[in-house]
C-alpha cells in the first residue's frame, strides 16, 4: 500500500478522500493549517493507525522537511478555500496556497519521485463565453475583481504543474473540479447547496442571487472522490488537465425549487443582487474523463440532495 499525503485534509474534499484511502489500507498523512478546515471532519480518522495529522501551512517552504512527509508516494494537493465567501475572506492566503503551496508540493514530489494531483477549478474558465466548457477553452477571466484571488491563483498553480512536468518530469495531474456537494459542506460555507438546504431546514428565506437563471452543474462528492482516485492511479492521466463534474446543468432557481420540494419547507424564495463576476453558465465537457479515466458520475442531483438533506437534518437535531 502507498504512503499518501493530502493537503487540506480537514476540508470538505480532503476529509472524504482521507476516509476512503484509509479504508483501502493506505497510510495517509493529512496536512492542514485549519484556516477553513475543521478537525471535526477528521474525528473518525484520528485514532486510525494508518493516519497522521500535521497542522502546518503548506505555503511555508519548511513543509518539505517536516517530519512525516518523507518518502511519500502520492500527493493530493487539495488545500485552498473553495467557496467565494471563504476565499474572499482569506484572499492573500488563497493566492499563496495555490501558487507557493503548489510549488512546495511539486518540490516534495520531485525529491521523492511522487505523483501529484493538483485540484484546480472550473473557475479557471471565468464567466465563460464557450458553453459547455472543454479543457481546451482558455477562459474569460477578470484579474481585477473579488474572485481573482482564487481564479488566477488556480490558473498559476496549473502553470507550476506544467513546468515541473516539462522541466523535471514530475508526474503531475491537474483536475478542474466543477461544483461538488454533500452534507460534508460547512453550513456556513456560502455555496449554493449548503445555503439552500440549511435555509430550508431552518425555515429561513432561500436566498437566490440574480434572477436564478444562471446555471451550475452539481457533482455529488462520492463521484468526485472516485474520479480523483482513478486519476491518481492511471499513468495515462500524467501531464493532463481533466474536467471532473456532472454534465447535467440546472438553473439556480430550479435547484432552490427542488430543495424546497424535497424539504417540504415553508421557506420563501427571495432574490438578491448578483455578486460581481458571478459566472452565468457552468457545465463541463467530460469526454476526456470518460476516455482517459473511464469515469462518469452516477448520482443524480435529486438523489444527492436527498442524501444531503437527510444528513443535515440529523446534524440539526443534535444542536
Automatic annotation (TrEMBL):
The keyword Membrane applies. GO terms for cellular component: cytoplasm. The keyword Cytoplasm does not apply. CDD domains: UGD_SDR_e (cd05230). Its main location: Golgi. Keywords: Decarboxylase, Glycoprotein, Golgi apparatus, Lyase, Membrane, NAD, Signal-anchor, Transmembrane, Transmembrane helix. One of its GO terms (biological process) is D-xylose metabolic process. Residues 4-245 form the NAD-dependent epimerase/dehydratase domain. SUPFAM superfamilies: NAD(P)-binding Rossmann-fold domains. It is found in: Golgi apparatus membrane; Golgi apparatus, Golgi stack membrane. One of its GO terms (molecular function) is UDP-glucuronate decarboxylase activity. InterPro entries: Epimerase_deHydtase, NAD(P)-bd_dom_sf, UXS-like. It is a single-pass type II membrane protein. Its cofactor is NAD(+). Gene3D superfamilies: NAD(P)-binding Rossmann-like Domain (3.40.50.720). This is NAD-dependent dehydratase. The lineage of its organism: Bacteria, Bacillati, Bacillota, Bacilli, Bacillales.
Amino acid at each position: 500500500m502507498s504512503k499518501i499525503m493530502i493537503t487540506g485534509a480537514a476540508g470538505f474534499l480532503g476529509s472524504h478522500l482521507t476516509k476512503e484511502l484509509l479504508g483501502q489500507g493506505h497510510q495517509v498523512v493529512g496536512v492542514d493549517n485549519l484556516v477553513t478546515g475543521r478537525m471535526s471532519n477528521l474525528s473518525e480518522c484520528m485514532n486510525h493507525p494508518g493516519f497522521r495529522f500535521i497542522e502546518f501551512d503548506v505555503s511555508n517552504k519548511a513543509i518539505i522537511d517536516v517530519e512525516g512527509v518523507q518518502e511519500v508516494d502520492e500527493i493530493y494537493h487539495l488545500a485552498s478555500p473553495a467557496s467565494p465567501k471563504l476565499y474572499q475572506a482569506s484572499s492573500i492566503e488563497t493566492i499563496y496556497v495555490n501558487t507557493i503551496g503548489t510549488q512546495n508540493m511539486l518540490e516534495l514530489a520531485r525529491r521523492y519521485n511522487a505523483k501529484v494531483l493538483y485540484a484546480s477549478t472550473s473557475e479557471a474558465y471565468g464567466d465563460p463565453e464557450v458553453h459547455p466548457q472543454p479543457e481546451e477553452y482558455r477562459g474569460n477571466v477578470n484579474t481585477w475583481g473579488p474572485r481573482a484571488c482564487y481564479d488566477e491563483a488556480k490558473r498559476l498553480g496549473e502553470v507550476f504543474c506544467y513546468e515541473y512536468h516539462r522541466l523535471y518530469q514530475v508526474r503531475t495531474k491537474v483536475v478542474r473540479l466543477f461544483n461538488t456537494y454533500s452534507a460534508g459542506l460547512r453550513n456556513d460555507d456560502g455555496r449554493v447547496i449548503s445555503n439552500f438546504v440549511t435555509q430550508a431546514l431552518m425555515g429561513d428565506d432561500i436566498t437566490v442571487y440574480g434572477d436564478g437563471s444562471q446555471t451550475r452543474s452539481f457533482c455529488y462528492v462520492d463521484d468526485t472522490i472516485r474520479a480523483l482516485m482513478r486519476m491518481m492511479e492511471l499513468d495515462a492521466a500524467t501531464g493532463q488537465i481533466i474536467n471532473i463534474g456532472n454534465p447535467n446543468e440546472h438553473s439556480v432557481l430550479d435547484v432552490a425549487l427542488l430543495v424546497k420540494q424535497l424539504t417540504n419547507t415553508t421557506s420563501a424564495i427571495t432574490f438578491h443582487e448578483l455578486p460581481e463576476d458571478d459566472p452565468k453558465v457552468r457545465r463541463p465537457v467530460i469526454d476526456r474523463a470518460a476516455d482517459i479515466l473511464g469515469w462518469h458520475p452516477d448520482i443524480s442531483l435529486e438523489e444527492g440532495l436527498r442524501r444531503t438533506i437527510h444528513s443535515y437534518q440529523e446534524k440539526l437535531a443534535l444542536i
